[in-house]
Amino acid sequence: MNETLKLGLVLLLVCAISGGVLAVSNSITAPIIAEIEKEGSMGAFGEFFPEADDMVAVDEALLADIMSNNSFIKEIYEVKKGEEIIGYAFKTVSNGYGGDIVAVSGFNMDGTIAGIKVVEHGETPNLGGKIEEEPFRGSFTGKNSANELVPSEAPSADNEVLLISGATVSTKGVLAGINGAREAFVDNFLN
């Protein structure tokens, strides 16, 4: 019995030390990881707004209010050239066939979509994975944000984007997030 108690105490001590080391290493690396993720988002946003010289996160209270009504939205930035707001950039998370789809999108102040980019997904390579490629990405650019975007095999209307054949769930997953961003943009930022 005494030997069992000693082993239990040793195991408890080893677990406590291991937990402490993990907590310290997490507190050191968490801000670094968050900064790297932010830089990745900013780089993607820069593709849509090459003329921008600043991106500022929207007020936290406003973001919280928007997020309470829109589960797709994770981040929102004002895109500026000098003091002028030239657009808004959104980071969204939606569900696809293989799990979460993390996308960024940009909206110009004239109400058009500046572009989209899928930055993380678990979709099937060479099928659902086509959501991060052309011509799918390009089918969003220049579309009017006034109406909900819908998939089409041959997009021609101003609210139609390319449906990836054989990857309907992936296409609709991206659309859910982008339509969430579109709705937040129209309701909160478009004059």
- Strand tally: 7
Helix content: 40-55%
Low-pLDDT residue intervals, each spanning 5 or more residues: none
Strand content: 25-35%
What is the C-alpha radius of gyration, as a whole number of Å?
21 Å
Give the distance, in angstroms, between the N- and C-terminal Cα atoms: 75 Å
Number of domain modules: 1
SS element count, helices: 3
| Anisotropy-based shape | elongated
What is the averaged pLDDT score?
A: 91
| Secondary-structure-derived class | alpha+beta
Q: Which sequence of strands runs across the widest sheet?
A: 1-2-3-4-5
Largest sheet: 5 strands, antiparallel
Helix/strand order, N-terminal first:
HEHEEEEEEH
Secondary structure elements and their pairing?
Blueprint: H1 2-48, E1 54-57, H2 60-69, E2 73-81, E3 84-96, E4 99-108, E5 113-120, E6 150-152, E7 160-162, H3 168-188
Parallel strand pairs: 6-7
Antiparallel strand pairs: 1-2, 2-3, 3-4, 4-5
